[in-house]
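Re: the request from the purification team.
They wanted to know what the chain is likely to look like in 3D before they choose a buffer screen. I agreed to run a prediction and write the result into the notebook, where they can find it.
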Amino acid sequence: MNKKIRRQKRVRVKLFGTKEKPRLSVFRSNRYIFAQVIDDEKKETIVGISEKDLSLKERINKTEKAKLLGNLLAKKVLEKKIKKVIFDRGSYMYHGRVKALAEGAREGGLEF
């Protein structure tokens, strides 16, 4: 089995999102970063967001974009009256853009 898939399964088996405390899942490609808040009981996405949703005039690096994305995600999730989430980093290390997105979400008011 692929090492990436093994790491992802190892992380995912410990996490399960509920209606009160959904799972904040992160996907990172070379170009963009995506995040979604998922209720695993109903198997539905509550809020989904990507870097493409940001409307930026100035050029900033990917890490700063990820932090802004985390902030925007937190605002959208708080509108749905959800304050606590479980952070699912998938197969990625808690480093760089993944860490920046998490910090931005915390600054926006999410707790995890």
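For the purification team: Residues 62-79 form the longest helix (18 residues).
Please add any questions underneath this entry.
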